[in-house]
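Input.
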Amino acid sequence: MRADRYRRLQAALDRRQPDLTVVMDGVHKSHNFSAVLRSCDAVGVLEAHAVPSPPGSMGLHTHVSAGSAKWVHVQLHADIDAAVATVRASGCQVVAAHQGPHAIPYDRFDYTAPTALIIGSELDGMSNRGLELADAIVEIPMRGHVHSLNVSVAAAVILFEAMRQRQMAGMYDAPRLDPDQRRRLLFEAGYPRIARVLRSRGEPYYELDENGKYTL
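Output.
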């Protein structure tokens, strides 16, 4: 691995936000799924969650995701209850993106606390169960003729607001990943094939020096 690539990988990992995530509840169109992952990577989301509908229906559009699927791990869940239970266990507040009488403007919500954003499908919108499980509901005000944005665009708008707030709070200024997790992700990003072999053998990853080179 070249030293400049190693430094780029380090910089990207040091901006990752382990307590900001997205839960895709039934987002079944692959181009929307891929576009959401691209936005997740852009703002530093480490891991996203998805409830496929129907199961096994999710795929990636490579030209849309721009390789972001390599950098944002996706955890699949059987249903929205399981997904929300997982993000709550990590300490996240749960906010649903949905237009309705109980929604507040998306930019008046505090995303500096650990946050999981639920987005619904482009066809049916947010499920009733997803709304029931949410701690808060946010909406993007619409000033024109259309009533809503495409789901991937809406996710991007809210995620970039979360990034803006977190930047103002200095949450991108220092690494936030656990050091062991950071080392693991750095090795997997730099040496994916070797990492797969070592995992299959149950062996630890090699240590990397300051230039990203490993020693046996």
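The chain is about 40% helix and 15% strand.
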